[in-house]
Amino acid sequence: MTLSALDRSRAGQILARLGGRRILVVGDVMLDRFIVGTVSRISPEAPVPVVRYRSEHVRLGGAANVAHNLAALGANVSLIGIVGRDAAADRLREALTKAGVPATHLVVDPSRLTTEKVRVVTERNQQVARIDYEEDAEASADVQRAMLDQVVALKDQDAILVSDYLKGAVTAGLVRTLVEKRTAGTPVVVDPKVPHLGYYRGASVITPNHHEAEQATHSRIRTESDAQRAAQAIRAEVGCEAVLITRGDQGLWLSAASEEGAAPAAAREVSDVTGAGDTVVATLTLGLAAGATLSEAALLANVAAGIVVGKFGPATVSTAEILERI
């Protein structure tokens, strides 16, 4: 069972309506820092490569990367998340501002580190090591209240997107408030994590990847029939309207009461899958906000993912790139 193809004319109509859509993103913001160098020898101190420093750059990660993807597609984005009072938070705000995403709704928790992933990579994009600066305990009651205040203050959104990375920002009470806040017709889309499945009741769509869907259903997903059963089981358990399982090089599976089917992978070449899920959920949400059907938005998201995996690190796509690929 395959989703009906999205023709170029219809895709162009949807993509033309993406600009200016108001999207609220709530979740775990991160900073991805890349230290780039060359490797020519093994350390005499331990059997590890010696990396000679060449350059360093930062990119947005987690919910911040989702917001960046939305902004790159023309959305008007509001981002709510938690940062510490540290240098990483300053770099994160600077990167958000450069990406066209206001950092004014971030909540500061001085007791926490800003989530930062430091990757040591070679000039050929081979990862040598990764260092994670993070605290994954659930946000304190005061910080949760501060986030809820921000949610309540931001009215009249065209869609709400929850980006859950299990770093403490996404709580049951927060998601409940977001679902209750939605007006008729406003989609609430969740990029989920399995331990929080019970939090997402009432959401419009959740987008587990292949491995998360297997975890959630205690099953193996090897065929489209397996994906169909898993998606239906998750939809029933969570009580959401639809489930979109991203399956890497196997494409995706969409399950909803009104429509169900697969879309084959759209990638021509794969450089780095980092952040591809962020691109999927951002494109899906923005498509729904622009009036696309669920299957149309899923197909646009599939194309966007196929483009972004051909780029290195957390990356974005443009409407022009998507239209060109269709």
Written account of the structure:
The chain has 326 residues and is an alpha/beta fold. It has a single domain, classed as Ribokinase (UDP-N-acetylmuramoyl-L-alanine:D-glutamate ligase). The protein contains ten helices and 14 strands. A hairpin with a 5-residue loop joins strand 12 and strand 13. The longest helix has 15 residues. It is globular, with a radius of gyration of 19 Å. The mean pLDDT is 91.
Features:
326 residues; alpha/beta; UDP-N-acetylmuramoyl-L-alanine:D-glutamate ligase; 8-stranded mixed sheet; 4-stranded mixed sheet; 10 helices
Strand order, sheet with most strands: 4-1-9-10-11-12-13-14
Average pLDDT taken over every residue: 91
Task: Please give the CATH architecture.
Answer: 3-Layer(aba) Sandwich
Largest sheet: 8 strands, mixed
Tertiary shape: globular
Q: Which structural class do the helices and strands define?
A: alpha/beta
CATH class: Alpha Beta
CATH superfamily: Ribokinase
The stretches of 5 or more residues where confidence is low (pLDDT under 50) are: none
Strand content: 25-35%
Write the layout of secondary structure elements.
Blueprint: H1 8-16, E1 22-27, E2 29-42, E3 49-62, H2 63-72, E4 76-80, E5 82-83, H3 87-98, E6 107-108, E7 116-122, E8 127-133, H4 141-153, E9 159-163, H5 172-181, E10 188-191, E11 205-206, H6 210-217, H7 224-238, E12 242-246, E13 252-256, E14 260-263, H8 276-289, H9 294-308, H10 319-325
Parallel strand pairs: 1-4, 1-9, 2-7, 5-6, 9-10, 10-11, 11-12
Antiparallel strand pairs: 2-3, 7-8, 12-13, 13-14
